[in-house]
Design a protein that fits this description.
The chain is α/β, with parallel strands linked by helices. The protein folds into three domains: about 1-240, Ribonuclease Z/Hydroxyacylglutathione hydrolase-like (Metallo-beta-lactamase, Chain A, 4-Layer Sandwich), CATH 3.60.15; about 250-340, Rhodanese-like domain (Oxidized Rhodanese, domain 1); about 350-445, 3-Layer(aba) Sandwich (Oxidized Rhodanese, domain 1). The chain has helices at about 35-40, 65-70, 150-165, 195-205, 210-220, 230-240, 250-260, 270-275, 290-295, 315-320, 335-340, 355-360, 375-380, 415-425, 440-445; strands spanning about 1-10, 15-20, 25, 45-50, 75, 85-90, 95, 100-105, 115-120, 125-130, 135, 140, 175, 195, 250, 265, 280-285, 305, 325-330, 350, 365-370, 385-390, 405-410, 430-435. It starts with a strand and ends in a 12-residue tail after the last helix.
Length: about 450
């Protein structure tokens, strides 16, 4: 028997591979789908079915690409939308996978046509339920993606799904959601890597609102929506079949020529970017791409990469999962080659928390831009006098940042601050500085802090 969960790092996406007696199926596959072939082929499993729980908005589904390589049938949810591939699953429909049985359960709420799939073992005992974005560890799916005007109705449908269809499956049934902690598909997914109906009944705060009206009031809220979600909607209705490619190395001369039309994305560390980078480059550290690339990268221009590692594959893969497939290449030899060719570079000033704290204690004035989220401000406190603009809101609020003085940028560690600094530099700000260590360093040296909401 085959039963594996496969995680796409960064976006906290879970897909599942199940099989028995040489037959296999995948639930919610990712676009870099070679991982499923690597698991099934050597073990002698034939992939027969690909199931989707809903039209995902935060990553590119790999159903069409995987079907093209295997001949597997695709079964998608949300039949109300115009898919260009696959066949819609029907409520109550069943499939045999070896001795296992999979049954579709219509579970509207997160989307109008969401489907969960209940897996029964060879004895017919309900074993696992693949809930997509209906039910997570510690949370339930967001209902605001179709607009806040529809959120209350969808929240009502989600209530009926949870209390009328999923919870009655039994406390021992294992819950297999499409996302784990860190996903943007809910506001507070817990850190339990595995959970059950019983654990969620006891510990999921959203399931404590057993009154339908109270549940709707607490769940029908608006969450952040990265701009790239709109592009994912198109990808996941058309059926993406892009190949798994790695950014080709480009010489300094080629890179410089291509950069006239492309966006230069620098995925090196904060210190490396701050010390020297290609003019106009956008800084997003490699591990931060899944969380921030969709907020800052346009979808109408090619990308050029500057990275630390010799292997650009992890960066290419992370971008591919978010639908950024137009990658024109990476800088061969990195910034060392750029400098050896006599090319121009820029730097971003950095300051330590000790020096900034001492300057403020001495009565110095700094225009401090704090790009942390509201929840972080409430949890860890504010820097006195700082101006708060969350990093994802900065592109729309640039007019609030002065150009006639130094802007000192602050976050939790310095990572997001460098994103903000690179964005400001691209938009014409010349005097910006990043606080190294962020709030973690601030607390470590006992600099002043206050609790509560700050300005901005």
């Amino acid at each position: 028997m085959l039963c594996k969960r496969i995680e796409a790092e960064g976006i906290a996406h879970y897909s599942y591979l199940i099989g028995d007696d040489g037959e296999a199926a995948v639930i919610d596959p990712r676009i870099d789908c070679g991982v499923y072939l690597a698991q099934t082929g050597p073990s002698g499993y034939r992939l027969l079915h690909i199931f989707e729980t809903h039209r995902h908005e935060d990553f590119v589904l790999g159903s069409a690409a995987l079907a093209a390589r295997t001949g597997a049938a695709i079964w998608h949810a949300d039949a109300q939308w115009e898919y260009r591939y696959g066949t819609p699953s029907r409520d109550g429909q069943t499939w045999r996978i070896g001795r296992l049985t999979l049954r579709a359960i219509h579970c509207p709420g997160h989307t109008p046509g969401s489907i969960s799939y209940l897996l029964a073992d060879p004895d017919g005992v309900p074993w696992m339920v693949f809930t997509g974005d209906a039910l997570f560890a510690g949370d339930v799916g967001r209902v605001d993606l179709l607009g806040m005007d529809q959120a209350p109705a969808l929240a009502g449908q989600l209530y009926d799904t949870l209390f009328g269809k999923l919870l009655p499956l039994g406390d021992g049934v294992i819950v297999c959601p499409a996302h784990g902690s860190g996903s943007v598909c809910a506001g507070g997914i817990g850190e339990r890597p595995w959970t059950t109906i019983g654990l969620e009944r006891l510990h999921n705060p959203k399931l404590r609102w057993q009154d339908r009206g109270a549940f709707i009031a607490h769940v029908a809220s608006k969450l952040e929506r990265p701009p790239y979600f709109r592009r994912m909607e198109r990808f996941n209705l058309d059926g993406a079949t892009v190949p798994e490619t790695v950014a080709a190395p480009r010489s300094v001369a080629e890179f410089a020529r291509l950069s006239r039309e492309a966006i230069v994305l620098d995925t090196r560390t904060v210190l490396a970017f701050g010390a020297s980078h290609i003019p106009g480059a956008l800084s997003i550290w490699a591990a931060g791409l899944p969380s921030f690339a969709g907020w800052f990268l346009p979808d109408d221009r090619p990308l050029l990469l500057v990275n630390d590692a010799d292997d650009p594959a992890p960066v290419s893969r992370a971008l591919m999962r978010l639908g950024f497939t137009d990658v024109a290449g990476c800088l061969s030899g990195g910034m060392l080659a750029w400098h050896m060719a006599g090319r121009e570079s820029e730097a971003v000033a950095t300051v330590t928390v000790q020096s900034l704290c001492a300057e403020l204690d001495a009565g110095g004035e700094r225009w401090i831009l704090d790009v942390r989220g509201t929840g972080e401000l409430e949890h860890t406190g504010l820097i006195p006098g700082a101006h708060h603009i969350h990093v994802t809101e900065l592109p729309a609020r640039l007019e609030e940042v002065p150009r006639d003085r130094r802007v000192t940028i602050f976050c939790g560690s310095g990572l997001r601050s460098m994103i903000a600094a690179s964005l400001l530099r691209r938009e014409g700000w010349r005097d910006v500085a990043v606080v190294l260590g962020g709030i973690a360093g601030w607390h470590s040296v006992s600099c002043p802090i206050r609790r509560g909401h700050g300005p901005g």
